[in-house]
Amino acid sequence: MAEERKKRLAIIASKGTLDFAYPPLILVTTAISMDMEAGIFFTFYGLDIINKHKFNSLKVSPLANPAMPVSIPNIIGAIPGMTSMATMMMKSWMDKAHMATIPKLLDMAREGGVRLIGCQTTMNVMGIKREDLIDGVEIGGAATFLDYAMDADVSLFV
Length: 158
Known about the structure:
Elements: E1 8-13, H1 18-33, E2 37-42, H2 74-77, H3 82-96, H4 102-111, E3 115-119, H5 120-126, E4 137-140, H6 142-149, E5 154-157
Parallel strand pairs: 1-2, 1-5, 2-3, 3-4
């Protein structure tokens, strides 16, 4: 009897801010805890999530961010230091909720066998080198991701 294929999650991560780094990482770590396969294709600014020079210092922008729980007029959000304040607030909320940090979620994903794919085309455009990325990242283009996503049960764009 043929072995049943695991359900598969395929995500495209295209944004590199702290508030956009959590969703794909939470989803893939949850998927592997549910005995699913999971993969993330990091493209454009999403590459910051796996960039070893940036992943530990991702920020949240308060400027023109209508989802901020504290209503901040755009003029206030533009004041120097407000991005740092918004980032501190989010990190504090995550800490109080006992949420793992981005580096910890990345470690969990790698240890759980999540396929992390850095977009070769975007890396070329943005001058990002393989050595800029954390260990365990595979480099591939759109065809690499599409081949993986073709058999996905769930596909998401973040």
